[in-house]
Amino acid sequence: MNKLLRQPYWFAALIGLSLSACGGSGDDGTSEPVQPVVTYPSYTSVIALGGDTTTFDANSSGHGFSTPSVNLTEDELELHLEGDANFEASFTTAPNDQHPELDGLGPVFNNADCNSCHQRDGRNSTPIVAATETRVKLGSADGIFLRISKAAAEPCIAGTVDNNYCAPIKVPDFGDQLFHRGVLKARADWQDNSFVGQADVYLSYERHDVVYSDGQTVSLKKPVFEVENPYDAPGETKQSANVTSNLLQDDVLMGWRNGMPVFGLGLLEAIPEASILANVDADDSNNDNISGRANWVFDAIKAQNGDVTPVSLGRFGWKANTPSVRVQSLGALRGDIGITNPLFPDESVLGTSLHDSYLTRTGFVDTGEGVDGAPEASAEFSDAVVFYAETLAVPARRNVDDSDVREGARLFEQLNCSGCHTPSFVTKTSGDIGGIAMSDSLKGQTIYPFTDMLLHDMGEGLADGRPDFLADGNEWRTRPLWGIGLTQTVNPQAGFLHDGRAATLEEAILWHGGEAQQSTDDFMALSQDERSQLVAFLMSL
């Protein structure tokens, strides 16, 4: 991985001591004490993390992630606000004669609107298990869901048309995402399971303690899921005597996914591909135990345009499994909500026995098409919601002159957190994003997202064992850190990491393993004050 060469922080102090020993003395003939020289990273005092797009009005606002980029033109601002309304829109079961533009929900889905998984454009709330309960059933208030797939006979090394470009293998009669909610008659047994989707999903937590050398203890929790009552075998569980459901077979892989913040996405897509690939070090050639890898993924836009090799660099999603904001946004519109659109015109459960039965039972009133034969979401609706996600402003940093924040920046560098959380990039000055000419507001911006956009092995503690294109079951894309200090200002119930398990940034750090294990070990070796300083720096971002 290409990184700036750094001298250890004690090196500058040693040079100072050596120079003073060569000459220079006080009037009394004795040497004066030499103060160590402390060097801070170049980003220590940076405030405008999103370049010219940065908003400076988000410091203590519950809507701190919901500000348009401040450098949009008047026409762009109008389109952004239109997309904002679309992002908030709640869809209904078809037909909806009064608001046909909002019908088409499901028939199975995870949520009815974008905001439920990206609350106030940030993270969703972490489900809470009451003290009197052992688990909680996911429902309409939960923004977490399960990705599902079949285990492959062997790892997929290179994507080709013959292996579907290493895409996850869909579970027969289910797909690659589990939809725990449904419209009233989604299932054939709807009288007993009204508003239930493909299956019921229950969440519980396993807990263990981490003890620092100074005796301080931190309790960590890990979510555990149980899937029951699948539509193809109602009432069945993994513990049933004879498991028949396709979903409950031993070779079905499942992994939690939380909704992500949606600000700054256009800037991330505008990072030149070459700048991201410059940090790839798959074989760890520099022996720093960090080996970032690129994920190359199927690109629905290229496929729709007839590209013979519809593959692009993965940039978004927890495993970098989507190439653009457009594919991510419209894929979620069709997948999470069940709303077909020009990029994804077919229902996500098309061809399954659940969908065939639903159409027959309900008289084909919800086929995934409008009365005009077009997808449920128009091109205008889709374009606006994509532009909205591309042009949400990055919030400015706070408290950059605070001594603890500055020391935290130094520790961030000292612990090599920047080995994966690359501080800065410059966005491209021309070209398109998502197959469409990009806004001038995104061009040529010096940004500080603190991510390398690459995959890293994060250890068994965070692993879900589920490959996604070239990402293996231990690998995750480095999350951008910009705005992370406002996460719980925007949503006090939000958690961190891919499944919301970490209630604090300290907990998130302690879960880092694999390539980040050395940094975690070094963090645990810090004093309590130093640990607080590092967290203070993160909270300033």
Task: Tell me what the structure shows.
- The protein is of the alpha+beta class.
- It is 23% helix and 12% strand.
- The protein has 13 helices and 16 strands.
- The chain has a three-stranded antiparallel sheet. A three-stranded antiparallel sheet has the order 4-3-8, with no helix packed on it. The chain has a two-stranded antiparallel ribbon with strand order 1-5.
- Helix 2 packs across helix 8 and helix 9 crosses helix 13.
- The radius of gyration is 25 Å and the shape is globular.
- The N terminus is likely disordered.
- This is C-type cytochrome.
Structural class: alpha+beta
Counted by DSSP, the helix tally is: 13
* Portion in beta strands: 5-15%
Rounded to the nearest angstrom, the distance between the terminal CA atoms is 24 Å
> How many individual β-strands?
16
Fraction of residues in helix: 10-25%
Order of helices and strands: HHEEEEEEEEHHEHEHHHHEEEEEEHHHH
Largest sheet: 3 strands, antiparallel
Report the average pLDDT across residues: 93
Major sheet strand order: 2-6-7
Round the Cα radius of gyration to an integer and report it: 25 Å
**Contiguous runs where pLDDT drops below 50 for at least 5 residues:** 1-26
**What overall form do the CA principal axes indicate?**
globular
